[in-house]
Model the fold of this input.
Amino acid sequence: MRGMGLFIAFDLPTTAERDALIKKAFENKLILLSCGDQSVRFRPHLNVNREALEKVVTLLNRIID
Done:
């Protein structure tokens, strides 16, 4: 069945910025995957709860700022 699950991808302006974001995320115990030249993939487990997703959003916002 399509459309079931959670898979997020986004682009950054450059490969260097993407790599720096992934490195900072890993230092904060968040695993992100690189894709192509400047994309980031985030694929949580299918039974992830809202609290965990909110932590990820907060962490990404802190890293990006």
User: Anything to note?
Assistant: The chain has a mean pLDDT of 88. The chain has one domain: 8-64. The longest strand covers residues 8-11. The two ends are 37 Å apart (CA to CA).
